[in-house]
Amino acid sequence: MTIKETQEGLLKKDFSAVELVDAYLQKINKYNKDLNVFLTVTEEEAYSKAKEVEKVLDSKVTKPLLGVTVAYKDLYLTKGVRTTAGSKVLESYIPAYSATVVKKLEEAGAIKLGKVNCDAWAHGASGENSDFGSTQNPWNKNYVSGGSSSGSAASVASGMSLVAMGTDTGGSVRQPANFCGIVGLKPTYGAISRFGVVSMASSLDTIGSFGHTIDDVETVFDVVRGEDGFDSTVKNFTPKKRTKLRLGIAKEYFMQGLDKEVEDSIEEVIKVYKSLGIEITSLSLPHTKYAVPVYYIIQPAEVSSNLGRYDGIRYGKDRNTFGDEAKRRIMLGTYVLSAGYYDAYYLQAQKVRSKLIEDFDRAFEQVDALISPVSPTPAFKIGEKSSDPLKMYLADIYTAGANLAGIPGLAVPSSFSKRGLPLGFQLLGPRFSEYDLFELGKKYHKAVDYKPKVAL
Amino acid sequence: MAKLTKKDVLHVAKLAKLTLTEKEIDKFTDQLSKVIDYVSELQKVDVGAVEPTGQTTGLINVFRKDEIDTGNYLTDEGPFEVEAILKERSDPTTQKLRGASK
């Protein structure tokens, strides 16, 4: 189902909001044990919200997300509901307030189903770094769901929730969306308030959403974006509607290391765009190969300072409770910021970051969006990369650039691999060009008559 | 290769207030060395006179208005009262001080 279909069903009384919640909870109860998606299910709250939704329906008031079920990455503070960030450190932490995004979705009529699994502190690209066990890919249990927003992507792909919220610091929305065959948006840095969301790397963190269709993700984006007075990096913006959009292909995105099936599937997508009369230009982003090294200096540096607050006094357990990956990133960050190394690592990375941004700026003088892979391979097997941190980091090659430049990225599902794993692509645009990306994505889905599939 | 020594790892762990076991020290020395070696590649990039980027919004010094917003209270009932822990003193020193400040 989509948001539109759900709301039509509710209005026509094909089903009630309570029945809707029944159906989703049944699915959660049936599959959650196998897939490890939900860490907390807020059953009671969901039913009381459903009853509220029914009253709103009777009063004929329309709300953009009325009756839409949502799952939150366990990084979003939810008043009175345990929020762990996927870490044992916060195993018993119950927040006193809700994140801005949670409040906005609630006001728009969304029904919260619960909190979903993720790599601890959002550190990871597979979901395997969660202190509560990894989330399995709903399309094949032997494969990872991607990360760090593992549970968010898996909840939507498996039909346990209609939409889900995640965070994207280096690809943590787009990559799991890609691995699970759904739509995922990483917005422009500063488009959505992060107030009340556990911080990872503050100059890179963005609030992302998952859905089965681009329309659904767009509807959620409309509700959550804009200033709230609590996150001073947020800017309101008025979308410009452009009619003729041009696409670019960066040659650096199609070099060695890219899986053949992924490459071929994107070739097919490009053919579709060509047949729609969209102008396609080849160009170069010369600093692409430095995106991952820059990211793995700046991000751990910011992680080390953001995780400094977990001292066992104000929140949860002490620092010995951190898992391996958090420890690695804290130490890496502390190292690159420490006396004698700051200029060579941190400052140099910030300068190369400027060069990366220049690359994108130059590209967007010629084209309105870039088409690229999301990840070098489709979903990989559980355990395949977990023993080698560096190997896992390298998988961020196509996603980290957008975070460093602060630009939006939309992960769009396209087809399936021979093994039955989802394939897709990514559209990147200049800052605040989300609506152009939606438009381009929808053009493709319309041309191929895309029908979203639910894994279970 | 930028190799981290055991001493480096222990130093960094101390700065970050992390306690490591012997096994962890060995494991992290190896793993962190590999990552540091990899990111050292950046030192080869000619950055010229480019300014470093710390954030991408371009917003500078964003302040809210200095007004009381009851929506900002973390309790539902507004601010809460607690018993006073400091008592007013009546000994000569305080009285003298008070007199002086008048």
What's a quick, concise take on this entry?
The complex is a heterodimer of chains A (456) and B (102). In chain A, 38% of the residues lie in helices and 14% in strands. Chain A has 456 residues and is an alpha/beta fold.
Walk me through what this model shows.
The complex is a heterodimer of chains A (456) and B (102). Chain A is α/β, with parallel strands linked by helices and 456 residues long. Chain A has a single domain (3-246, 372-447), classed as Amidase signature (AS) enzymes (Alpha-Beta Complex), CATH 3.90.1300. Chain A is built from 14 helices and 13 strands. Chain A has helices at residues 3-11, 17-35, 43-58, 100-107, 150-157, 174-180, 214-224, 260-275, 291-306, 324-337, 342-366, 389-394, 400-405, 434-447; strands spanning 38-41, 69-73, 111-116, 136-137, 140-144, 163-168, 183-186, 206-211, 247-250, 280-283, 369-372, 409-416, 422-428. In chain A, helix 2 runs antiparallel to helix 3 (43-58), helix 5 runs parallel beside helix 6 and helix 9 (291-306) packs across helix 11 (342-366). The longest helix of chain A has 25 residues, at 342-366. In chain A, 59% of the residues are buried. Chain B has 102 residues and is mostly helical. Chain B has a domain at 6-44: Histone, subunit A, CATH 1.10.20. Chain B is built from three helices and no strands. Chain B is extended. Chain B starts with 5 loop residues before the first helix and ends with a helix. The model of chain B has no long low-confidence stretch (mean pLDDT 84).
